[in-house]
Amino acid sequence: MTTEQFRISVSDDVLEDLRDRLNRTLFTTASDSTFWLAGTDPGQLRELVTHWADGFDWRKAETALNTYDHRIAEVAGRPVHFVHVPGRRAEGAPAPLPLIMTHGWPSSFVEMLKAADRLADPAAYGGDPADAFDVIVPSLPGFLYSALPDGPFTRRRVAESWHELMTGTLGYERYGAFGGDIGGGVTQWIGALYPEHVAGIHLTSAMVGADFEKRPATPEEQAYIDHLKAYDVGDQGYSEIMCTRPDTIAAALADSPAGLLAWIIDKYRDWSDCDGDLESRWDKDTLLTVATLYWVTGSIGTSFRQYYDYPLNKPVPTINVPAAVTLSNELAFKGLPRSLTERLCTDLRHWSTPERGGHFMSHEEPEQVADELRAFFRPLRSAS
């Protein structure tokens, strides 16, 4: 199979329409005097919308994104967008290890780029050139430039597509896989389904999918499960509507760029390791680059499909390939015991809780992610 080169190119008409909509935004008032307590703060949203309309330079962002090698491949009959960051091979060293990095929601390929640069050319960042990776960063189905699958969106279906992309389209015989959130679920399925091809898997969000009927939860495990349930009570409002009425909220967000931005930055603030200060982690232009990509592709609604189809996901089978976890420093994973992951991963070789970097760890802490991936995969590079 072949791939086609792709460039991000947004027409002037689309940008003019976006600017016009932004300038006509109607803002709400805060429902609570406590900053952000009731959701995205209207004042901070107004600042971002104003900058989006009058200060943000999309063409500069577009040019920077197009310095990467973007490709479109047909996988399982559907177009898949991915970025290829080729590994820089050191003289006399083995070929870089292929690595597929999968983002989550409400994220994009942009999350992985800084870490991918460091992984592809470690020597440029003071590392060992022998640790180079050949990095593939796909856009999840329904996100940005990748089409929805022909059928339900499940983690297993995406894992099957990613394996076809890596082996059938790109010709890699052996590769590693990395991801968090949705990408973590996909990465788990890759490890479970293709042990003969997968050198190892690395996760930033260790999902709980254990069968407690055969072996009851320990007190420590039960305490974490109870914590997660309590956390979900206050956090799951966004997912409840996307799981049950995605088209209702999508209609609003597809028509209002300010509404789209509010929906996205609510999670960037809540799930990142920013201590409530959104712009301590994300400068305005970074947030607006992500929001603009969602807007110009009209893909916020299709990004909800994995929520609507979530009940169709089956439990992940036992994973026997080498596994690693660098645990996200977000409230949902506070206190998650290693033993829960060991119920699923029989060969858990690396467990790290750096307490830096949240839901978007590769974007928040790219050097940390690169270091962790290098350390985990270093002894796994050879198939022997």
Automatic annotation (TrEMBL):
Alphabetically ordered keywords of this record: Aromatic hydrocarbons catabolism, Hydrolase
Residues of the Epoxide hydrolase N-terminal domain: 4-112
A molecular function GO annotation: hydrolase activity
Hydrolase is among the record's keywords: yes
One Pfam family hit: EHN
Entry-linked Gene3D superfamilies: alpha/beta hydrolase (3.40.50.1820)
Entries under PANTHER family matching the protein: EPOXIDE HYDROLASE, EPOXIDE HYDROLASE 1-RELATED
Family designation: Belongs to the peptidase S33 family.
Protein name: Hydrolase
